[in-house]
Amino acid sequence: MAGVNKCLKYSMFTFNFLFWLCGCVILGVSIWLRVSKSAQQELNLQGSSMLSAIDLLIAVGAIIMVLGFFGCCGAIKESRCLLILFFIGLLLILLLQVTAGILGVVFKPKIEENIKTSLEDLLPLNRQNQTFQDALKTIQEENNCCGISQGIEDWGNNPPESCRCDPSKEPGLCTSRSYYKETCVSVITEYFQKHLAIIIGIAFGLAVVELFGLGFSMTLYCQIKKK
Questions:
Q1: What is the pLDDT of residues 103-118, one digit of tens each?
Q2: Quick check: helix, strand or coil at residue 168?
């Protein structure tokens, strides 16, 4: 009976260790997005749908870490049970990632329209909860913008100080009433497009790596079975 290829065995272990590290990175970044004050201000504007997506990433990162652990142990211990669990779990994640990546590519061109529509449903802004208002005021201060679609009119009869600008110091940015002309929808859209592009890149990048993992695990599984 042929023995297990040592090179393949330790290559499988190395791959899964790196895979486990990828899970750590995804989990760490997702948790940072969930708890970071600056990121939270942006997420509050999109509501529960974006927070749900971040929670999903946290779950995916944790699952990848567990699968990486299974793969490492399966390779070192030459356990067919752990290797097949790793293979099945990795295959399911690969299918989900490819589906999510395709949906992300399809959805990306429509993101500005969808964000603008969802935010316009929140008008007038001064009737929203204080957490939402504070988040939007911070964005206005940092990006020299005001409101979502109609500028100060979005705030009703009481626009906040964060909408005010000085025509003498910021020529071209202010209206005749000393409020910022530009709305904040473009700033919010750019934020989500940037993070969506990162997520799509991670999904497809990991998909390529996972294909190697599937090949490694099944080859090693077959060798252990023959042994």
A1: 766 766 666 677 667 7
A2: coil
pLDDT of residue 48: 47
pLDDT digits (tens, 9 = 90+) for 74-89: 888 878 888 888 888 8
Q: Estimate the share of the chain in helix, then strand, then coil, as percent rounded to the nearest 5.
A: 80, 0, 20
**Ranges of each domain in the chain:** 6-109+193-226, 114-186
Structure tokens at 195: 């993070």
Q: How open is the CA angle 31-33-39, to the nearest 5 degrees? A: 155
pLDDT on residue 44:
52
Secondary structure of residue 174 in the 3-state scheme:
strand
Residue in 26, 46, 37 with CA at minimum distance from that of residue 192: 46
For residues 156 and 185, the answer to whether their CB atoms sit within 8 Å is: no
CA distance 53 to 30: 9
CATH of domain 114-186: 1.10.1450.10
What amino acid occupies position 129?
A: N
Angle at the Cα of 217 from the Cα atoms of 202 and 24, rounded to 5 degrees: 35
- Which tens digits make up the pLDDT trace of 142-168? 788 888 777 778 787 777 888 888 777
pLDDT at 109 (0 to 100): 67
- Is the bond preceding residue 167 a cis peptide, omega within 30 degrees? no
**Residue 109 corresponds to which tokens in the numbers above?**
């061109």
Computed from CA positions of residues 158, 162, 163, 169, in that sequence, does the dihedral angle turn out positive or negative? positive
Is the distance from CB of 212 to CB of 12 less than 8 angstroms? no
